[in-house]
Design brief:
The protein has about 150 residues and is of the alpha/beta class. It is about 40% helix and about 15% strand.
Length: about 150
């Protein structure tokens, strides 16, 4: 049983890595979609608890304020990081998600990099450079899937 959380700032590559892992046959859940996040911006805790209890192996992605409440249920917490200029370039041009295109969104991302990313780093078990090729990032996450930790 291996549970992996992939977290990071908007534009770090979380959804892209999950798409590649899904293409490779892994069970994945991108919590940005499908009603995982409540209107207050937190995960639906009963739903997330059930997911982690019911699925022996899953890779979850997301960045929400209450994710730390679930860290003990993940074998690995992977922080995808990238420099601010890379994040801002990516969110300005990604086709599937409009967040990051307004000046307000971009200012919020800059603030999150300063204030939230250090908290994510403190809770992560591994940090990966989001500028690496997607296939390489997926390979690294697959290595983690094959290597359960003793964290839980």
């Amino acid at each position: 049983m291996t549970h992996v959380l992939v977290t990071g700032m908007s534009g770090a590559g979380k959804s892209t890595v999950l798409e590649e892992l899904a293409r490779r046959g892994h069970d994945v859940v991108d919590t940005d979609y499908g009603g995982w996040v409540r209107p207050d911006g937190d995960w639906d805790e009963p739903r997330m608890a059930a997911l982690l209890a019911d699925r022996p192996e899953v890779v979850v992605s997301g960045t929400v304020a209450n994710q730390g409440r679930f860290y003990d249920r993940f074998d690995h917490v992977v922080l995808l990081s990238a420099p601010l200029d890379v994040l801002l370039d990516r969110v300005a041009t990604r086709p599937a998600n409009p967040y990051g295109r307004t000046a307000q969104d971009r200012a919020e991302i800059e603030r999150y990099v300063r204030e939230v990313e250090p908290l994510l780093r403190a809770g992560a078990t591994v940090e990966l450079d989001g500028r690496l090729p997607v296939a390489e990032l997926a390979d690294l996450v697959e290595q983690l899937i094959r290597r359960p930790s003793r964290r839980r």
